[in-house]
């Protein structure tokens, strides 16, 4: 398996940029189009676990105002050959000091690259190693 395929990195960079633009604009149709439209698709959010493209789409349509604005701090793209890849991203929501994390598994389909699995989380105020034990 080739973990540094330049073409896959280029394509996933473009897809990740499209995702960030659609997220910032709360373009739910564009966001839906970037996800695999099947029951296998999973999105774990900051406050929800969503199974299947229909649940993900319903969540987006019911979230007032869309995702809070954010700045991307760091992005790593790891191709898994030419058929799949992982986009790992750190971000900070506007007005917050906490770091958010997002991981997306993308698959290359006949209809282009699609997100099959996604996970979004916000880091704790301090690492677990710095918290007092109970």
UniProtKB/TrEMBL annotation:
Gene3D superfamilies: 3.10.450.50. InterPro entries: AtzH-like, NTF2-like_dom_sf. Pfam families: AtzH-like. This is DUF4440 domain-containing protein. It comes from Acetobacter syzygii.
